[in-house]
Amino acid sequence: MPLVRIELCNFKSYRGLQVIGPFKHFTSVIGPNGAGKSNLMDAISFVLGVKSAQLRSSQLKDLVYRGRRLAKAPVDGSEPTQDQENDDEDDGAEDQRDGSAKKAWVLAVYEDAEKKEWLFQRTISTTGASEYRLNNQVVTYAAYNTALISHNILVKAKNFLVFQGDVEAVASQSPRELTRLIEQISGSLELAAEYDKAKEAQERATENATFNFTKRRGIAGEIRQYKEQKGEAERFEGLCEERDQLILRRILYKLFHIEKALEANARDIQTKSRALAGLRKEQQNNDNALEAARAEQAKARSAVVKEERKVKKAEKSIESKASEPELVATDEKIKHSTRKVHNAKALHEQVEKDEERQRAKLDNLRRDLISTQKAADEAAEAHRRASQYSTSLSAESLAEYRSLKASASVLAVPERQSLDTLGREEKTALRTLNQLKAKFEEMETRRNKLNEDATSQGERKNELEEKHSSLQADLTRAKQEYDKHQSERTRISRLETETNEKLADVYQRLLQAGVDRTESEREIKLKETLSNLQRVFPGVRGRVVDLCKPTQRKYETAVSVILGRNIDAVVVDEEKTAIECIEYLRTQRAGQATFLPLDTISVKPVNDKYRSFAKGARLAVDVIQYEPAVERAMQHACGNALVCDTLEVAKYVCWEKGQEVKAVTLDGTVIHKSGLMTGGRSTHGSGKKWEEKDVQGLIRLRDTLKSQLQELSRSKLRGKADENIIAEIARLESAITLAKDDLSALKLRYNGTKDELKHHERELKKLAPELKKAQAAHTTLTAQIAALRAVVDEAENGVFASFCTKIGVKDIREYEERQLKVAEEESQARLRYDQQIARLTHQARFEEEQLQVTQERLTTLLRTRQEEETKVVELEAQKQQIQTEIAEAETTLESMREGLNELNNIQEEKSKVVEQAKKTHARSAKVLDQALKEIGLKNDEIEKLALERSASYRKCRLEDVRLPLLRGNLKNVPMEENLREEVAMAVDEDEEGTQRPKKVQDYGIEIDFDALDDEERAANSSETLTGFDTSISQLNSEIERMAPNLKAIERLDDVEAKLADTEKEAEKARKDSKTARDQFNDVKRRRYELFTDAYNYIADRIDPVYKELTKGKSAPMGGVAYLSLEDSEEPYTAGIKYHAMPPMKRFRDMEQLSGGEKTMAALALLFAIHSYQPAPFFVLDEVDAALDNTNVAKIANYIRSHASDAFQFIVISLKGSLYERGHSLVGIYRDQDINSSRTLTLDVGAVFVCIFHLC
């Protein structure tokens, strides 16, 4: 058994010496909350070297028992060990004084596979001192931990215990935390520091080797360059002399033809000036005639403008009257009143028909009432006469009848009494039946009347609904037309806005075209100046931008930003040449320029480490192509600046690595040495070259857009149309409102009639059963009376037999019926006629009331009709008055338009006169301007030639060119150009209006042109100058290409010695790099193997363990669990993802699982991890807290099935379904008398054996 028992003394809640155990393969620790179960877990952790922070205490001294009193003997009667007895003797007296211990210790008895016991003991005192003992020998913590590791008990990884709450933490841990856990289990975490150190050493060695390699390559390039420069200086002087002679002949050729051109232009100006006076006089006459014509035209235009204002004012007045709200409102009122008259007329006709119908009905009722009354009177008279002829008896017979009647009355007395009762009931039932019949007939009559009213009101409602629908359709069409106008106006406004934006863009581009032209001219002038400098000074090589070229197009923007202000700098060989060029630019007024002399410019050496500092970062000097002769200038312009592929690379170099270097991305973003970041963009070469055809295209587009704006302005809808539509919409809305009101009132009456009709229908339905019931009751009573009457009649027949024979009747009832029939018939007839008369009277009264209501309505309609007709007449008169005023205004407007047409004709005639005068004036002005322009061009040519001659003199003086002179000296020519002195008063006119040639300075110089031959004197063509320039350029180019360096031989030896030293350093760096790489790969391999061995084992075990824990009857296969690596090459640097899918559920993230599912998944992971290099025992503290009984049983079965001599489980639990499956139980309870935790141990297997034997 791995862990046999635990002995502890004064540890936390355990007071005194206590022995817990022995522990079996599967031992369950049970007990109530607060009894000390978790303290037992802390004791096991404590004795195995776990830190105090993980034992639910901030300090080790908190682990020592603090109680009320101290026990005098071991609480469980066990025998303490000898060492414990010795320790207890030292502090027994002190403990008994205050009940608190001064130290505590825990002893774990462990049995290895060879059945050898190992005693691990750890002691702690209240002062914080800690002591470790191994087999009763005091040892260091390192030796103590080594002994634990030898038994595969890893304290750092805690592979032998799971604290309370750790299960949930395992389920929710991140992938990186899971990686660290597996690193602790596998032991690869111990190689992490060595791995990082080896990796850093490899990077340093690689960087050093790259630096030395780059340095060696740079020195080899210098040697190659110096060897190439060695033979260039020998031909330099001869070529310079030849070039100077060509320059002198070119200057003489140019000056000779300048003198000839000055003389020819002066003669032409004198000839053309003589014709200016006549042209000016003719121009003055034409000016006077044009001014007079314009004055007349202005008078005519003023009159037209005044008349147009009057016409517009009159038009506006007419338009306002025609469209003013008063006229529109009048039209609307007329239409509304007309409709009301029409409606009143139609309604009046309908009501008259209703009146005739009601009057006819009333007359019929009255006639029926009279006829009924007459019939009633006749029936009464007939009954009276019939009663006179009825059978009569004598006095003796009548006395006998009465005597017999009295005798018969004592016979069948019960039947007579019942008959009387039923008779009264029959009368009551008959009366009720008659009342119900009368009520039923009255309600049927009212129902029929309501049906007729509902039908007429329904027809009227349909008419009003059709009218309302028609008005609504008209309103919808009017609104659609109005919306269409609004959308058209919106569309035109949008198009105007878009056209204006396009027009503004065109104006902006035209303005930009003008700026770009200026920029292009400046660029051309700069190139001409540079060409002159190269021609005059042999040491001028060119601009930086022309001397270098990016290796790829993607580097152009970055290189332009890096070069910055040096992009247009001029590279020269010597500082002296730069000074001469500056002086030349100043004298020629050719602008400013920056010069980079190769011999004196300061160049910092390029830091070779940046050539391989980061992936995606390159030195700027490495991404441009240039000639070796200008290398110093390029290094000065670029420095150590880096070209980075992306902004992230630039941030990595400057911010993360902290390098003080300028980094520029491919899109021009700059991170400066100071760390600031700005957006950079080169303007060199990015300007658009505007051509004349582009400008003309923009002008045409501008004119097109203007015409589109004019067309859109003409397409705008006038406001009058909208006003008419708005008026129509207002009229329709008003009519719809009236129709809605009428329809609502009619619907209200119609609904009331329908409701009343429904009420009568319901009453009739209720009354019909009552009537039927009354009829049935009356029939029943009649039958009962007939049966009783037969009994009574039989009794009377015996009494009245002889009497009936005597009077000659069949039976006494015949006599009585004959006498009574007359009275009864009379009564019934009277009742029937009375009912009919009452019904007819009631109906006639009702119809009279309805007729009166109809007549009142006719009166109201007639009055409304008359009022509206009067109102229509008044409105028509008002409208006629407004229209008369409009007609008068239109007549006046027509006469004003005729006057305006006459004035327009006069203005057109005046305009024709002005146009003719303009044409005459323009022709004379054109002739005069042409003459002046030709003279001006000649004077400009003289000025230009004089400036060219002065520039040539200055160039000769500046370049020390010795011109052959007949007279004068070049020193008389100033080095600075003074335009005022050279061309002052050049265009003054004389008193006759003529112009003289410009006077220019010749500085008293006369040149000897004998060096020129006749062919050169006769020919004045650009080809000759081009020939001179070509020859000079070829010589300059050849000289520039040579670029001799006289110091190259001296520096060659120094550079070769430097190369030898650099090669030694590079070889050493290469060896160091290889050694560091091998060491890193070895550490990496060992760490990878340790980690992957553990990971592969755990990954293979996790699914079977999870399946075994989760399988059941409903899911015999169990769930699915697996691990996945985020980085398969170096898995320990990334995370490990744990995936678990419970049985019969779809895949979800671990965070979305329930608490029980997380616990099962975490336990599966813990069991799988523990199975790799497992500890001999495994302590679990309430890991089943979140599980139900089913899952607890699964966990218990798993533990019991895997518990063995080599693998022991100690489980703290409160679930009966778990601890009932244990091999032994350790019960912990709280002894309140001594304030201490106590334990009881039960061997379940032995108990079962005893029970089996007893049974």
UniProtKB/TrEMBL annotation:
Write down the Pfam families for this protein, in alphabetical order: SMC_hinge, SMC_N
Q: Alphabetically list the UniProt keywords.
A: Cell cycle, Cell division, Chromosome, Coiled coil, Mitosis, Nucleus
Q: SMC hinge domain: which residues?
A: 538-654
**Cellular compartments per GO CC:** cohesin complex; nucleus
Bias-annotated ranges (Acidic residues):
82-93
Q: Name one GO molecular function term.
A: ATP hydrolysis activity
Q: Which family does it belong to?
A: Belongs to the SMC family. SMC1 subfamily.
Q: Does the keyword Membrane apply?
A: no
Provide the GO biological process annotations. cell division; sister chromatid cohesion
Task: Give the region (Disordered) as residue ranges.
Answer: 72-100, 444-469
Q: Where in the cell is it found?
A: Chromosome; Nucleus
**By what name is this protein known?**
Structural maintenance of chromosomes protein
**Coiled-coil boundaries:** 276-324, 348-382, 695-777, 837-948, 1045-1086
**Species the sequence originates in:** Scleroderma citrinum Foug A
Q: What is its main location?
A: nucleus
Q: Show the SUPFAM superfamilies listed in the entry.
A: P-loop containing nucleoside triphosphate hydrolases, Smc hinge domain
